[in-house]
Every structure is written in C-alpha cells, then in structure tokens.
Amino acid sequence: MAEFIPNKPIETTEPKIEVTVTPKNPLAIGVNRFQLIVIDDAGNASEPAVVEVIVRDTNRPTAVLDAPKQVEIGRSFSLAGDRSSDVAPGKVAKYIWTLISTPDFPDR
Asked: DSSP secondary-structure letter at 81?
C-alpha cells in the first residue's frame, strides 16, 4: 500500500503496488495520470509508460426536505433543504425546487 503524492516517485522491487486513498490523501475527481519507469539489473531505465485513471463520483446525494405540516391560508412559509448531504468529499451544489401537485392539479 502506498500513498501517492503528485510528482514524488515511489520505488519498489515488486511489480504491483496498491494506490492507497484516504480522507487526508484522496485522488481528485477527474483524470489522474500515473507513470511507470522500470530499471533493469544493469541500471538501464525504460521509457516512461503512462496511464490515465478517471476518478468518478457515482454516489447519489441524499435530499432532505423540511417544511411545516400546516400553514394558514394566505401565509408565506419556508422550505429547507439544508440537511441534505453528499458522501464526502462531495458537496451539495444545487437545489431544484418544484411544486409537483396541488388540489387543483393532483399527481398524475
């Protein structure tokens, strides 16, 4: 297991390495490029081999909608989505509010 730090090489004698990801050392969402150079027993270095690993956030956020149970006719009220969340390190970036039915326009 190894915590990769950008542009800091890690030398091993094994042909495989685990990329260890922690909350303190996450890989950024998007394209992450890794490079491998091998050295033979005579000290000759290979040309670099480069691979791209795409890190995606596929965890859906959780919407939590708070509202009063009843309101007086003609009175304004608030809806709140501040208890909504996403799995770290993700953050809720947008709230989309929609009135989906009323007594005059029931659900279809």
From this structure: -
Q: What is the pLDDT of residues 51-78, one digit of tens each?
A: 999 999 899 999 999 999 999 999 999 9
Locus of tokens 């090489």: 9
d(Cα 80, Cα 51) in Å, to the nearest integer? 44
Rounded Cα distance between 78 and 24, Å, is 37
What's the Rg (C-alpha) of the chain?
25
Separation of alpha carbons 28 and 50, rounded Å: 18
CA dist 97 and 77 (Å) reads: 14
pTM over 0.90: no
Beta-ladder partners of 49: 36
The Cα–Cα gap between 65 and 59 comes to: 19
Read off the amino acid at residue 18: E
